[in-house]
Amino acid sequence: MKYSRVLGTGSHLPSRVVTNADLEAIVDTNATWIRERTGIEQRHLVSEGETCCDLAEAAARKALEAAGIQASDLDLILVATTTPDQFFPSTACLLQQRLDVHGCPAFDLQAVCAGFVYAMDVADKFIRTGAAKHALVVGAETISRLLDWTDRGTCVLFGDGAGAVVLGAAEEPGIISTHLHADGAYKDLLQVPGGHGNGRPEAAFMEMKGNEVFRIAVTTLGRIVDETLEANNLSKSDIDWLIPHQANIRIIQATARKLDLPMERVVVTVAEHGNTSSASIPLAFDQAVRDGRIQRGQTLLMEAFGGGFTWGSVLIRY
Ligand code: ACO
């Protein structure tokens, strides 16, 4: 078995829905600005006591069911998250315990909004080298807990949720290629500056220079699309579906234009979910699989850009 392929997908959103109009009551914003500048209409937010691992578990159970395997068949558990329940154990270890799995490697991977594509790359490499046969890859976030709810430049943009994929070893791809990048030089444009490690635990809220991030995201995602197509000797018309990270509809439209893809061929969830960071791609993927848009045999391009900066893509024959 030389490759990995997607056996099943799952996702979960918290039940509490917060609309743009609801936000007008808590911060100086207006619903029309949010919709026109971002495409976001609403987001799902966790309630008190609801954790990242709760979301991850619900998504993981659906993905296992769709894959037709038992949790005990897993030999790798990866959770991409920026909002773990605790410093340690990792959310992946907490999830492993909930799934009653024992012994296989389980770890979190933190690449903010690019976390899911990073985790898919790592899981694919475990499977290609024979180190794993069945990998659970989850993107799960309670990003609302990192937000300063008085900062209208960030708090209106994000939502909570989780998506999951079960990968299995296969003779044919599956995951055709993955492309990862990072550049820490851009730290000041998008960060949560505080942490116990730098003695500033009180500064644990997101800061973003939104319009600078926007400009760099558009050009960088254009480059990652080119890189992915060139590496595989593909043309734009070979892509059946674009499954982008869902930060802003204008960023998504720019990438679709770059690919000459009509928006009907782009999976868009940003209106309902907002930006759910590492959960946004697997949430969108699962939605389009379950409603029948994405079919077996089609070619899917996932791409993401986020804090770090980190960015990357995953090309899949579904
Ligand atoms: N409601 C009303 N007005 C607002 C709001 C708001 N929520 N937020 C900003 N404004 C105002 C600003 O104050 C500014 O007013 P001014 O002209 O009087 O100063 C005006 O709107 C324009 O502000 P900009 O920041 O220039 O607006 P822009 O069109 O760039 O949109 C946005 C802002 C939506 C944040 C956009 O820049 C964006 O999407 N950036 C990229 C975000 C992203 O992709 N992040 C990476 C992934 S996230 C991660 O990794 C955690």
UniProtKB/TrEMBL annotation:
The keyword Acyltransferase applies. It is found in: Cytoplasm. One of its GO terms (molecular function) is beta-ketoacyl-acyl-carrier-protein synthase III activity. Keywords: Acyltransferase, Cytoplasm, Fatty acid biosynthesis, Fatty acid metabolism, Lipid biosynthesis, Lipid metabolism, Multifunctional enzyme, Transferase. GO terms for biological process: fatty acid biosynthetic process. Residues 229-318 form the Beta-ketoacyl-[acyl-carrier-protein] synthase III C-terminal domain. Residues 107-184 form the Beta-ketoacyl-[acyl-carrier-protein] synthase III N-terminal domain. Pathway: Lipid metabolism; fatty acid biosynthesis. Its main location: cytoplasm. It holds the Pfam family ACP_syn_III. It catalyses: malonyl-[ACP] + acetyl-CoA + H(+) = 3-oxobutanoyl-[ACP] + CO2 + CoA. The active site is at C113, H245, N275. InterPro entries: ACP_syn_III_C, ACP_syn_III_N, FabH, Thiolase-like. GO terms for cellular component: cytoplasm. The keyword Transferase applies. Residues 246-250 are annotated as: ACP-binding. Its EC number is 2.3.1.180. SUPFAM superfamilies: Thiolase-like (SSF53901). The last Arg residue of the ACP-binding site is essential for the weak association between ACP/AcpP and FabH. Homodimer. Catalyzes the condensation reaction of fatty acid synthesis by the addition to an acyl acceptor of two carbons from malonyl-ACP. Catalyzes the first condensation reaction which initiates fatty acid synthesis and may therefore play a role in governing the total rate of fatty acid production. Possesses both acetoacetyl-ACP synthase and acetyl transacylase activities. Its substrate specificity determines the biosynthesis of branched-chain and/or straight-chain of fatty acids. PANTHER family: 3-OXOACYL-[ACYL-CARRIER-PROTEIN] SYNTHASE (PTHR43091), BETA-KETOACYL-[ACYL-CARRIER-PROTEIN] SYNTHASE III, CHLOROPLASTIC (PTHR43091:SF1). Belongs to the thiolase-like superfamily. FabH family. NCBIfam families: fabH (TIGR00747), PRK09352.1 (NF006829). HAMAP family: FabH. This is Beta-ketoacyl-[acyl-carrier-protein] synthase III.
